[in-house]
Design brief:
The protein is built from 26 helices and 13 strands. It is an alpha+beta fold. Among the domains are: 153 residues, Immunoglobulins (Immunoglobulin-like, Sandwich); 173 residues, no CATH class. Strands 2-3-10-9-5-6 form a six-stranded mixed β-sheet. A four-stranded antiparallel β-sheet has the order 1-4-8-7, with no helix packed on it. It has a three-stranded antiparallel β-sheet with strand order 11-12-13. The radius of gyration is 29 Å and the shape is globular. The two termini are 52 Å apart.
Length: 673
């Protein structure tokens, strides 16, 4: 998660705007109120609490938000807000639109005292009411009860909270949490329950950053007041709690749990069109891409960026989202030239005065230009100058390494394997785990380009080892079906095996991807559920043993001597077996799942500019066919088939015509007719 996203996530906890709702009345749309500073908890006859919005600042902006079905045309709607029959403002279009949520706003009067309790009502303007919702007259959308209070004590506690957070850097985390707990207790005594929850959530945020304190942070979330999840007047604080739950799950490696919690947060933020929903969407897109669902990740983030046209987003965060979108498109194996052009153009529209902001954009821009077949040198020159102006340290080294990786990709596209190898090989030694699979993949492709297939095979083995053991959790999605960088490298490694005449090894690589993608989610769920200290310690030991095995494999290289090469092969297989056994060791669980039986008779995979078909008959695996099929044609075919499935096409003849290019590549010889 970028520093910008982390900042905005924390800033959301400090926001003073809250969302609320009650059940819709009559035939009105779901209506929710936003803008209040706290709530008044009123006990019901059943013993539960109703949270009534409480306004504590004269002249507060108050909003009423509607969830309008997508089938209803609300494009021309105008509404007025009324208090006790008095219009707060002339009829106006929604102040904010976000998805299917519309929010109309007004300002509470401050030129006179207001009753302690009153109703805020919304009424559609007569001329804007379409026939679909009873046009021909004005329509009252509904009313919501609210209370007005003295904000003196609230303002004092807010000021103390700001002072506490201003000095947070000089406090130990536990001391900061204790001070926040004391403020929360004072807020509860002052009948300010949402302010109390806010203090508690900020404490959770800081505690979650330390591994030792993270269990206590998770326990605090579980112990939040029960009314928080039921009172829609507290929906924004409930959304923030769900967001923090997701952050803790991510830090613990439980990405499936994080995905679920982020979904809850996004739905709650949408209820009152809160802009923090945008931050949640960025993280959900990252998780989708990490799971191999790159195309879905791109679509998800594109929709949220489009929402910014109607619900203005923070300019810095919007720029970060456009940069993330470009990265997601680059990682999507079904990316198309128009998509690459679009994200490249969007990067050019962002003004980034700071070098630390311009550098990541320059690197991504260079990668996009490479994908589009353009000369990236002017962009890389800009990136080199920006790196030269950075202070010495890990940041400048890392960014410089990515520039060298892009230089290597440019050399690969030019067919210069020697230059690519010269640029990439040093990155395997100093790039760290995040760089390692990219660096080794580059080395492997350079060796293949030079015709050294044994060296390419070994380099791809290292590439896949880092992908498999350093990539983190998945979401229960199939890597094989979702594709992504790991699956692309598996396909390239399988092609090298085919070119070496070893179709069985190619088959095994593809089958290994299937097996791991089927069980990775369960493995991470097991790890996330580990509570016993011995089990947690064993998981840590497994991490360290994997690191050691990866380091040994990384140092393993092919010498010129054929005798030494033959000696190295069993060493490589021992390391592979050690890594596989470590992956199958699940402390605290009943045991790792057994492998699925491989009953396939054929396996096909797409790689770069071709489709390769393997077949198995009577236990013997062989190459059936290699069919040229460029990426652009494959992308168009996948998009066309996806659209046809969505439309529910069933005409057999049409399907035959549609799939003819794929049939030529995929059908076994006996089915070619």
């Amino acid at each position: 998660m970028s520093s910008k996203v982390r900042f905005c996530a924390f800033a959301a906890l400090l926001a003073w705007t809250f969302g609320c709702a009650t059940e819709p009345q009559g035939d009105s749309f779901p209506l929710r109120l936003r803008g209040h500073q706290d709530v008044v908890l009123v006990a019901s006859e059943e013993g539960a609490f109703e949270a009534v919005p409480l306004f504590l600042q004269p002249g507060s902006t108050v909003g009423l938000c509607l969830e309008v079905p997508a089938t209803v045309d609300s494009s021309s709607w105008r509404a007025r807000l009324e208090i006790e029959g008095e219009m707060l403002a002339p009829p106006a279009a929604p102040a904010v639109r976000m998805g299917t949520t519309l929010c109309f706003e007004g300002v509470l009067p401050q030129d006179r005292p207001l009753p302690a309790e009153l109703e805020l009502c919304a009424r559609l303007d007569e001329a804007a009411v379409p026939e679909s919702v009873g046009g021909g007259g004005s329509r009252q959308l509904g009313c919501r009860r609210l209370q007005i209070g003295d904000g003196t004590e609230w303002a004092e506690l807010q000021n103390r909270l700001r002072q506490l957070l201003g000095g947070a850097a000089g406090l130990a985390t536990r001391d900061l949490a204790t001070s926040l707990d004391e403020l929360a207790a004072e807020a509860r005594r002052a009948s300010l329950p949402l302010l109390a929850v806010r203090c508690e959530l900020i404490a959770v945020h800081f505690l979650s950053l330390g591994e030792d304190e993270r269990p206590a942070a998770a326990e605090r979330l579980r112990n939040l007041p029960t009314w928080l999840g039921r009172a829609e007047a507290a929906s924004l604080r409930a959304a923030q709690a769900a967001y923090l739950e997701a952050q803790i799950a991510l830090l613990d490696g439980r990405r499936a749990d994080a995905w679920s919690a982020l979904g809850v947060a996004e739905r709650l933020y949408l209820q009152t069109a809160d802009p923090t929903r945008f931050t949640v969407a960025m993280q959900r897109a990252d998780l989708l891409s990490d799971a191999g669902a790159g195309h879905e990740a791109v679509a998800h983030l594109r929709e949220r960026i489009a929402d910014c046209e109607d619900a203005p987003c923070d300019p810095g965060l919007l720029a970060a989202a456009r940069l993330q979108m470009a990265r997601l498109v680059l990682a999507d194996p079904f990316r198309s030239p128009p998509e690459l052009e679009a994200v490249l153009e969007s990067l050019g529209s962002d003004a980034r005065p700071e070098p630390t902001d311009r550098l990541p954009a320059a690197l991504v821009k260079g990668a996009l230009e490479l994908e589009l077949g353009r000369d990236p040198e002017p962009t890389l020159d800009e990136a080199r100058q920006l790196v030269a102006n950075l202070p010495p340290g890990s940041a400048s080294t890392t960014q410089g390494d990515w520039i060298r990786w892009l230089e290597a990709q440019s050399a690969l596209l030019r067919g210069d394997g020697a230059e690519a190898l010269s640029a990439c090989r040093p990155l395997t030694e100093r790039g760290g785990r995040s760089m390692a699979p990219w660096a080794w993949g580059c080395v492997a492709r350079a060796h293949r380009l030079a015709g050294d297939l044994p060296a390419a095979d070994l380099a791809f083995e290292k590439t896949l080892a880092y992908h498999e053991h350093a990539s983190g959790a998945r979401l229960g999605l199939s890597l094989a079906s979702g594709l992504g960088p790991q699956a692309e490298d598996v396909a390239r490694a399988a092609r090298v095996a085919v070119e070496r005449g070893d179709a069985r090894r190619a088959w095994e690589l593809l089958a290994r991807l299937d097996q791991r993608s089927a069980h990775e989610a369960r493995r991470l769920q097991c790890r996330g559920a580990a509570r016993d200290p011995r089990a947690k310690a064993r998981w840590q030991e497994i991490d360290e043993e994997i690191e050691a095995a990866l380091a040994d494999l990384s140092r393993l290289d092919l010498p010129a001597s054929l005798a030494r090469e033959a000696e190295i092969e069993p060493v490589r297989r021992v390391l592979q077996e050690r890594l596989l056994n470590l992956w199958r060791t699940w402390p605290g669980c009943d045991g790792a799942p057994q492998s699925y039986p491989d009953v396939a008779s054929f396996r096909a995979f797409a790689v770069d500019d071709e489709v390769i078909l393997l077949g198995r008959r009577e236990g013997r695996i062989q190459l059936v066919r290699r069919t040229p099929l460029d990426r652009a044609s494959l992308t168009r075919l996948v998009q066309t088939v996806t659209a046809a499935i969505a439309e529910g096409r069933s005409d057999d003849a049409a399907w035959r015509r549609l799939l003819a290019p794929a049939a030529e590549a995929l059908l076994p010889p006996e089915h070619d007719d």
